[in-house]
Design a protein that fits this description.
Blueprint lengths: L1 E5 L6 H15 L4 E5 L5 H11 L8 H25 L3 E5 L2 H11 L4 H12 L6 E6 L2 H7 L13 H17 L4 E5 L4 H15 L5
Parallel strand pairs: 1-3, 1-4, 2-3, 4-5
Length: 206
């Protein structure tokens, strides 16, 4: 079972991913593996630092795509694929849908190139269920007011509106996999909605 959480910064995806992790651990005996993408492994975290460093203003869109892909390949090869093969439940804070939303819709790279890069990076692994936490940009920005912006977060409002549009396009194109949720709801209410979906999709956690 592979579940991913998506959305722009400030949508609450990391909080909801952690809440689901805690509930699953308290409900079932199946091992749970939680990762963030990019990151989790030493190499992937190093690449993440390069990508988010706001001093790296000369990173091009294609370089950005390939760096994300390299970090993801390391994460998949060393953590995600082995965990899934062993029967663990994997929860990920971001995965390939982020690359489609950010690098294709946001940066303007060709969608076919993004999909090819994702396939190479993942070896064909696709999440069983993805939660897209949809929140208006102004709402997300209010939640992040006390946080120092990284390189991606400095891309501007028009960029993030395109990213949000990209996520919504994914919901329309893959409605069985990508679940859109209203991220303006209270944390506990949103968690219960996520839990309900998980129970309906995956009988073992019912």
């Amino acid at each position: 079972m592979f579940i991913t959480f998506e959305g722009i910064d400030g949508c609450g995806k990391s909080t909801q991913a952690k809440l689901l992790e805690e509930r699953l651990r308290s409900t079932i005996a199946t091992p749970i593996v939680f990762v963030r993408d990019p990151g989790h492994t030493g190499i992937s975290e190093s690449i993440r630092a390069i990508l988010l460093d706001k001093a790296n203003t000369t990173i091009t869109a294609r370089t950005e795509l390939l760096l994300y892909s390299a970090a993801r390949a390391q994460l998949v090869d060393t953590v995600i694929a082995p965990a899934l093969q062993s029967g663990s439940i994997v929860l990920a804070d971001r995965f390939t849908d982020s690359t489609i939303a950010y690098q294709s819709f946001g940066r303007g790279l060709a969608l076919d190139d993004i999909r090819s890069a994702n396939t190479v990076a993942t070896g064909g692994i696709v999440p069983d269920c993805t939660f897209f936490l949809d929140v208006p940009l102004h709402h997300a920005k209010e939640r992040c007011m006390d946080k120092s912006a990284d390189r991606i977060e400095l891309a501007g409002d028009e960029f993030f509106e395109r990213v949000i549009a990209g996520y919504r396009a994914l919901v329309r194109s893959e409605p069985q996999r990508v679940q859109r949720l209203d991220a303006t709801l209270e944390v506990d209410v949103l968690h219960e909605q996520i839990w309900s979906v998980v129970q309906s999709v995956f009988a073992p956690v019912s």
